[in-house]
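Issue: ligand-bound run for zinc ion - logging full I/O for the record.

Environment: standard queue, default settings, no custom constraints.

Inputs:
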Amino acid sequence: MASLANIWQDFTHLLFPYNCAGCSYALDESEHIICKHCIENLPRTFYWTYNDNAVATTFYGRLPLQRACSFMYFTKGGKVQEMLHHLKYNSRPEVGQMLGRLFGEHLSASVYQDIDCIVPVPLHSKRLKVRGYNQCDHIAHGLAESMQKQYLTTAVQRIKANESQTKKGRYERWINVHELFRVVEPQRIANKHVLLIDDVVTTGATLEACAKALLLVPGVKLSVATIACPSIV
Ligand SMILES: [Zn+2]
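Outputs:
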């Protein structure tokens, strides 16, 4: 059965089939989702080229990360905001995949290529039902394509902080009710270098909570990457 989100997606594609997700100008036949001009002029941070960047320092003293970076600077009213808006609120998950693919081209030519797998920050199931998809899954998919790595969308779950402790099951030792996330497939990430993905990093609180759950799994090394960060972190 078609979800409301899918119907809306078909409808908006009918209205705006060939417009750039960044500048809204018409795409030519060789362009796909984002126009050449926008791709060339994306406000890239190049944070993946050095370790002591503004995103990495956000997590200093909070998480034992290998590395952290963002792809682009986010400014209010800018093209990055426009693209993320399409991704999150206009039922255009393909924008996330495209941005992930572009980001992955840089990461695969950097020290980040030594990761083993990609894990997107999960959405809570209620939010997932409303939106119809997790935007981070699509970013991870694009990254996985460029970097030729596996991406795992079911390894971690987002839970309610007040979830009942009486429902402890097979993976109870991975569950911490004081956290927002739990790892449900620890065997898939044990002893791996995981790249944790989110769309935007601001305070880093969501990533920190998710990272803490992942770091409970034995042997996990963790790096973090997001599509955007504020221009002044
Ligand atoms: Zn454009």
